[in-house]
Specification:
- The chain has 10 helices and 10 strands.
- It has helices spanning 52-58, 83-89, 106-116, 121-134, 150-162, 180-197, 231-235, 238-243, 250-260, 272-282, and strands spanning 4-16, 22-36, 41-45, 67-72, 75-76, 90-93, 168-172, 200-205, 216-221, 224-229.
- The strands form 2 sheets. The protein has a 6-stranded mixed beta sheet, sandwiched between helices.
- The chain starts with a strand and ends with a helix.
- Bound molecules: adenosine-5'-diphosphate and magnesium ion (MG).
C-alpha cells in the first residue's frame, strides 16, 4: 500500500461578493495524481501560485478535494474517523519558522507536540533528544529560539514535527525566508532524514537547486503537473522550464548553451563538478 495516493485531485477556491453570490472560481489544483511510497524523497516544483501549497494541504486533510480522492496509508482523507491517524502520519513544516515555534526554550518547543499527544514524559524527552540530534540542533537545546539563525530555527521547527514521529514530512517552501547558508542547512538536514532515518519527504520549493537530492520531481504550473521525472530528466528541459517561470541550476544551463554551440557535453548535467569534468573531457585536457 502506498503511503500517499492522490488520484485526480481537483480543488477550487470560490470567491464571493458581499451578498454571497459567486464572483469567480479559481481552480488551484487541476486533476493531479501523485503516488508516494515509504522512503521516497519527492520534490514539488513550481512558481508562485502554481498550486503547490493547496495540493500539500490535501496530504494531511487540511483541505479536501472537490473531485478525486487522497488516501493516506489507505485512509480516505475525507474519512473523519481517521483524521488523527492521517495527521499523525503526515507532518507539515511551513515557510516561516517564527510562526511554528512557540516555546521559549528549544527543547520545550520540540516537546510541545508529543506532550499534546499525551505521550509519557520519559518518552517525550527521548524523542526530543533524538529529534534535535537528527537535525544537528542538540547542542542548542537549552537556548532561546529567538537567539537562533533562520536556518537553525527552521531546523528546530522540523525537530518539533519529527518528535511526533510522522512517517512523512511535507515541507512547504521551508527555505523561502532563509539566506543561502540557512537554505543549505535545511536541504542537508532533510536529505539526511530521508537517507539515514528513512523518513518519507515531500519538499516543496521554487528553487531548482534544492531538488537535486529528490528521487522524483513533479513540476506544477496552473494547478497541473506538467512534468515529472528524476532531477536529471527534468533539467534537460531548460527551455520549457523557463517558459513556466523556472530556471534550471546554472551548471545545467551552461551545459545546454555549450551544447547548442557544438561542444560535446552529455545531457543531464546538474552540478558544477560534473560540468567542469565534461568540459575538460571535451577539450581533452584530461
Ligand atoms: P503556490 O503554493 O504554488 O504558490 P497556492 O496553492 O498558494 O500556490 O495558490 C494556487 C492558486 O490558488 C493561486 O492562484 C492563489 O492565488 C489561489 N489561492 C491560494 N489560496 C487561496 C485562498 N485562501 N483563497 C483564494 N484563492 C487562493
Ligand atoms: Mg505556496
Amino acid at each position: 500500500m502506498s503511503l500517499i495516493n492522490a488520484e485526480n485531485v481537483t480543488f477550487e477556491y470560490i470567491r464571493r461578493d458581499k451578498d454571497g453570490a459567486v464572483e469567480g472560481i479559481n481552480r488551484a489544483v487541476d486533476e493531479v495524481s501523485i503516488t508516494l511510497e515509504k522512503g521516497d524523497f519527492i520534490a514539488i516544483l513550481g512558481h508562485n501560485g502554481s498550486g503547490k501549497s493547496t495540493l500539500a494541504k490535501h496530504f494531511n486533510a487540511l483541505l479536501h478535494p472537490l473531485e478525486g480522492t487522497v488516501y493516506v496509508n489507505g485512509y480516505d482523507t475525507r474519512d473523519e474517523g481517521h483524521l488523527w491517524d492521517i495527521r499523525q502520519t503526515v507532518g507539515m513544516v511551513f515557510q516561516n519558522p517564527d510562526n511554528q515555534i512557540i516555546g521559549t526554550v528549544v527543547e520545550e518547543d520540540v516537546a510541545f507536540g508529543p506532550e499534546n499527544m499525551g505521550i509519557k514524559s520519559r518518552e517525550i524527552w527521548e524523542r526530543v533528544v533524538r529529534s534535535l540530534k537528527s537535525v544537528d540542533m542538540y547542542e542548542f537545546r537549552k537556548d532561546s529560539p529567538q537567539r537562533l539563525s533562520g536556518g537553525q530555527k527552521q531546523r528546530v521547527a522540523i525537530a518539533g514535527v519529527l518528535a511526533m514521529q510522522p512517517q512523512c514530512i511535507v515541507l512547504d517552501e521551508p527555505t523561502a525566508m532563509l539566506d543561502p547558508q540557512g537554505r543549505r542547512e535545511i536541504i542537508d538536514a532533510v536529505t539526511e532524514l530521508n537517507r539515514k532515518e528513512g523518513i518519507t519527504v515531500i519538499l516543496i520549493t521554487h528553487y531548482m537547486e534544492e531538488v537535486l537530492n529528490a528521487n522524483k520531481v513533479f513540476v506544477m504550473d496552473k494547478g497541473r503537473i506538467v512534468m515529472q521525472g528524476t532531477p536529471r530528466q527534468i533539467f534537460k528541459h531548460a527551455d520549457e522550464l523557463k517558459e513556466i517561470g523556472l530556471t534550471v541550476p546554472s551548471a545545467a544551463l551552461f551545459a545546454g548553451e555549450l551544447r547548442k554551440r557544438g561542444i560535446e557535453i552529455p545531457d543531464g548535467i546538474l552540478t558544477t563538478e560534473e560540468l567542469v569534468k565534461e568540459i575538460c573531457r571535451s577539450l581533452r585536457i584530461i
